[in-house]
Write the structure tokens for this entry.
Amino acid sequence: MKDGKFITMAFESSCDETSVAVLADGRQVLANVISSQIDIFRQYGGVVPEIASRHHLENINQVVDQALEESGVTWEDIDLIGVTKGPGLVGALVIGVATAKAMAFAHDIPLVGVHHILGHISANYIEYPALEPPFMALVTSGGHTNIIEVEDYNRCRVLGATRDDAVGEAYDKVARVLGLGYPGGPKMDRLAKEGNPQAIQFKRVYLEKDSYDFSFSGLKTAVLNYLNTEKQAGREVNKADVAASFQQAVMDVIVEKAVGAARNQGEKKLVLAGGVASNSRLRAMLEEACGSCGIQLYRPSPLLCTDNAAMIGCAAYYQYRELGADSLDMDAYPSLQLPEEKL
Ligand code: KG4
Ligand code: ZN
């Protein structure tokens, strides 16, 4: 405890960001240090798992020190340690989990393992101090695309998921074939602003009637086919039009399904989460769609959308309060499923 507040330290290392955060009373961020490996992976056009875990290992102690310094807390002040236990790259997860366990053991602090997606959703509790479940959540990141009914802090129901590529993954792959570099999502977002979203009519994939599932691999192939056809015909491709048309085809489906899920389940709150939640078109379209049917839209600021440890610390706080600590033989779980019942 510090100044009468419950102090949580959290670790996130599921992909290519090494992050350590310190929070007071679950929602107040005292430090959120993020060491990104983006510059390293630009040359490879994507994350190389083995290299990512090595960098986590090299960085993590310095990131811990910086988080302690920025927050002004000492080990004696810390009441809880939270860590992403999955899903993610196993070698990357292991570095965060092993460090968190070592610190918990050495300083005799309770430990909680957090599901990465619940972390993304929890970013909204930090952004909006008064937000409480229940609500509908749309999680769109490089590894996940889900529509989730969040019934309580530790209880949720997955209504829909992608059957192939995640949205961010599709963005990154299309960006690569357009020669935009890594990570492609933000670059596509910027380029699309200069293009015509109606220029190319890519097919919208809604799957079965009433399904909240997604499929984006066909759209990615359609973009590839379009580019090949244009190349063979010797026609100049307008990359901004391709980016804008691809984006519109993605967002039409996502927005309709997410808002439809909230309406059908009678939820008055829709919460955005994950890296793609910072997409400007998604934000604008959801704002309009939610506004027209009386649904309140929540979305974290861009820094809290992409991977960071503050969101994990917030999720850990609510998990610990309700369900208590995990044991020190907790492991990293690369394919961890979302907790549909109690965690
Ligand atoms: O949540 P996140 O940091 O990592 C995962 O848990 O996957 O999400 C990263 C993903 C990447 O695919 C990145 O290209 C995408 O989010 N992304 C975006 C935007 N900003 C990040 N995609 C579209 N538009 C953006 N503005
Ligand atoms: Zn993530």
Notes: The first strand starts at residue 7 and ends at 12. The longest helix spans residues 239-264. The radius of gyration is 20 Å.
